[in-house]
Design goal:
This protein has 157 residues and is α+β, with helices and mostly antiparallel strands. The chain folds into two domains: 94 residues; 53 residues. 45% of the residues lie in helices and 15% in strands. The chain has seven helices and three strands. Strands 1-2-3 form a three-stranded antiparallel sheet. β2 and β3 form a beta hairpin. The two termini are 25 Å apart. The relative contact order is 0.12. Pfam families: DDE_Tnp_1_assoc (PF13808).
């Protein structure tokens, strides 16, 4: 989890200087809870409380688990580009764990019904790069106008 804490440390904290919960710790709890099936801020807080002993084994949690209101407030204010860049750092560190001979699977998917009413009937495409041994999607890139090969190259770079 230190990889995540280090990456999340670069995200500017949009809250006032008197914020009680460490932003990196809050984001780690949110990330782990979403991986385990949480789909709302209330579920993140509930998951955090249920697994507080586990989180305390690697987080300080000076003020216990944040409330659902705290999760909501943070996600309403946080810079999405900074959060995306932090996840990019995490993925770069994980990608460094790849070894010679590891398989990177490339897969294209059509996103049916994923267009606005004003858009043409052409189906949107996404291309993903998946590290088989690590069981991790490394990148997902849109394939503009059906250019799946270009998107695959971009996903691998």
């Amino acid at each position: 989890m230190q990889i995540f804490l280090d990456a999340f440390g670069s995200i500017p904290d949009p809250r006032a200087s008197n914020a009680r919960h460490d932003l990196g710790e809050l984001l780690v709890i949110a990330f782990v809870s979403v991986l385990c099936g949480s789909s709302s801020c209330a579920e993140m807080a509930e998951f955090g409380r249920a697994k507080e002993n586990v989180f305390r084994s690697f987080l300080k949690l000076k003020h216990a688990i944040p409330s659902h209101d705290t999760f909501s407030d943070v996600f309403a204010m946080i810079d999405p580009k900074a959060l995306d860049a932090a996840f990019g750092k995490v993925l770069a560190e994980v990608a460094a764990l790849l070894q010679d001979g590891d398989v990177i699977a490339i897969d294209g998917k059509a996103l049916r019904g994923a267009r606005g009413k004003s858009e043409t009937a052409k189906t949107r495409m996404m291309v993903s790069a998946y590290a088989s041994r690590l069981r991790l999607t490394l990148a997902t890139v849109p394939a503009d106008r059906g250019a799946e090969l270009d998107a695959a190259i971009e996903a691998l770079s």
